[in-house]
Each structure stands twice: as C-alpha cells, then as structure tokens.
Amino acid sequence: MYLRAMRVKKPTSVAIIGSGNVGRGLASSLSANGYTVTFGVRDLENFSAKSWLSEHPSISVARVEDAVDQSDVVITAFKPEGLKEMIERMGDLENKVLIDAMNSIMNKRTPFETTTHALEELTHCKNVVKCFNTTGANNLANPMFGRQGMDMFYAGNDSYAKDVAQQLAKAIGFSECYDLGGSESYVLLEQLAMVWIRISRGEIGRDFGFKLLRR
C-alpha cells in the first residue's frame, strides 16, 4: 500500500548521498526550488560540505541511513569506489526513487558495467533511473544560459522513476529532458558524460551545456 501511495504523490524531499561538488550543485538548486534536501554522510563531524553548509542553512545533514529514511527520493553522488559501503549504509530502498548521478567509466573499480547497474543489482530497488550525470556541478547548480535552460538526459526501466527525475530536472531549470531508454542506455549516458568532461578540459572550460536543436 505504501508503494502505491508513494507513486501517486509528488515527491518533496530529497536525500543526496555524497557531499562533493556534484552533491552540492544539486542540493543548492533543489533547495532553492522548494525541495527539502538532506545530505547523507558517513561521519557527521567530518564531511566535505561542512563549511559549505554554514552558508546554506536550508539544507540539513544526517547519517546516510537517516537521510534515506526521511526522504522520498535518493540521489547517489559519491565516489564509485565507495559504492558497496554506501549501499549497506542506505538500508531499505524498496519504496524510494533512486537517481544515480554517478559515473564509473573513468574509474572501473567495480565488476559492474556502470554504477547504475550496480545499484540495481545490489539494492534490489525497482525505482532506479540514471540522471544528472552528463554535466558538471556548476550546471547542476545553475542550468540556465541567459533565458534558456540546457537539456538533461536520463534512462531507466521504471516509468515512475523517470517521471520523478524529469520533474526534478525541470524544477531546477533544465529545459527539455530526453528519455534515452532502459538500462541498456546507462553506458551511453556515461559516455555522454565523458564527452562533456573532455570538452570541459579544453579552451571552452566548464561553462557550457548540451542543447538539442530541432527544425
């Protein structure tokens, strides 16, 4: 009954697991657009966003398991090598929407093809979607270029999880959200992330985003 109730309501609370640059970018934009945001961290006394949080009083912090328990949506944004430990800390994810914003393509330290494949298998969560992994933290904090928002891409096997990811992306300023398919497209999304990373290391820098143009 709880799962059915969760699927018909609009999620309002988000746990972000990982307090690095990507987590901070998402936290700031989601919080600014009305979502209740909680960082889930391993050590409440020592985590990377501790001083940053003093300038963002609307964002809270809790142990990983507590942040997950009190939130509708869980976004993973930590280093892939800590994946198994974090999954153990996250606890029961059966009735959560799990959004993977990570990439393992640069750091193959797990036996899985992508971080999202790993999350699907190790958590047994059915509401998994890969999103927010194809651009930099600066664009997650602010996807607007003048009056135009950049585009976002996602993939997953669950239609509700996709709807939630699109809802969050549009709420924080992304213009269009493109569905690239099911789990077969997780690798494609990580490769697209590599395109952004490669370009960002050149003369253009990080202040650019992907936008599809149509006639």
TrEMBL record:
GO terms for molecular function: cupric reductase (NADH) activity; ferric-chelate reductase (NADPH) activity. The keyword Oxidoreductase applies. InterPro entries: NAD(P)-bd_dom_sf, P5C_Rdtase_cat_N, STEAP_metalloreductase. GO terms for biological process: copper ion import. It holds the Pfam family F420_oxidored. One of its GO terms (cellular component) is plasma membrane. The keyword Oxidoreductase applies. It comes from the Bacteria. Keywords: Oxidoreductase. This is NADPH-dependent F420 reductase. The lineage of its organism: Bacteria, Pseudomonadati, Bacteroidota, Flavobacteriia, Flavobacteriales.
